[in-house]
Structures are given as structure tokens and as C-alpha cells.
Specification:
By secondary structure, the chain is mostly helical. It is built from six helices and no strands. The chain folds into two domains: 1-87, no CATH class; 101-219, no CATH class. The protein is 27% helix and 0% strand.
Length: 224
Amino acid sequence: MAWPSARLVRLLAVLAIMPTAVWAGFVLTHAKIKPSIAHGPLIAAHGDVACVACHMRTPGTVRQQVQAQVRYVLGMRQTPVDFGYAEVGSEQCLACHARPNERHPIYRFREPRFAKAVEQVDARSCLGCHSEHVPQIVTVEPTLCRACHEDLKVKNDPIDTPHERLVSLKKWDSCLGCHDFHGNHPVSSPTRMAEALPALKIWSYFQGGDDPYGSPKFYEGKVQ
């Protein structure tokens, strides 16, 4: 019996892998999956950080990962899987940024009393306010303080416009003009609203601009 020609063997090989290639293309461009692989540039402070410092390799071969994603898209699996490297979570962030002076630690917001607040700002995770591969340093609105402080009253209020007055006027974009959310900058809160950082500076910082609170910091992130 004559052996098939090399051209025929190549054609049969292409036909054999075609279904897998089609499915892989469909899965990788599906709306539920595409955001997990559409990476952008790192923020400036992470420019020298290696990808593997945050992204851990996922188990399984590429074929197994594609099969799992196909099952997920078809509703035969409850959760998707990561291709190649796992999704980054708070654990990776805190490996470099955990600090003893944290004013709003994420574990605090996992308490039941903050259930309504996290419906507005999911502060249970670093990724509730921060992301990577996007231009923004902070991905929520500068008015995030309202999630917890709508009933704020300060005894012997030290500022010329009392906090209660600012709350009644819904001036939530003024909070970060005086207060550093994480408490990582050695700055004192002003006693006059005229000395507060302008809301536009805070907004610019959130969008990737200069840090308006200045340097140094109490705690610098670890270098990987």
C-alpha cells in the first residue's frame, strides 16, 4: 500500500486542528473572556516590575485551558479559567504594599456593617479602587468617601467650614483635598478650606497625574 504524499499529510493535519483553532479563536474573543487578556501598559510606578512578580502560572496545558473555557462559554462550567497566568488579586498587591499605618485596610470592609457601603465602592479588595494596564491610578470617583461618611459629625470641628456643613452640601469631592485615604503621606490636614487641595488636582491624580500629596511617604512599595 502506497504511503500518502507529504502534501496530503499536511492537509489532514490542518483539518484535524481546525476545530480546535476555531473554538480557541471564539473563546479568546468572547465578551466574557476578552477583558482578561487585553492588557495595556503598566502604570509608571510599576514600570520596572516583572510580569511574573504579580502573575502566577496557572495549572493545565493550553489545550486543557481552552477546553475549560469552551465549557464555560457553553454553560457547562460555572467559572472561567485563566490562560497561562492567573488573575492578580489583593494578595499580590499586599506583597509589596502592605503597611502598618494603613488607614483603610481592605479586611475592615469585609465586616457585615459595611455591606451597604461596598455596594457603592468595593473596598474589600485592592482591585475595587485600583487596576493595572489602564491609565488611571485610581479607578473610582473622587467622591468615594460618601459610601461610609454620609452621617459624619465631628465634635469640636477644627475646620472653618464644618464637616457636617460639607456633608449637607454634598461636597464629597472636597474630602481628599484634606485627607489622604491610605494615610501614607506625612501631611497635616488643613484647618481652612482655602488651603485644601483643589478637586481638579485630585481628579488629575486619579487619572494618572502627579501625586498632589507629595513625598516622602511613610512606606514605599517593595521593589521586586
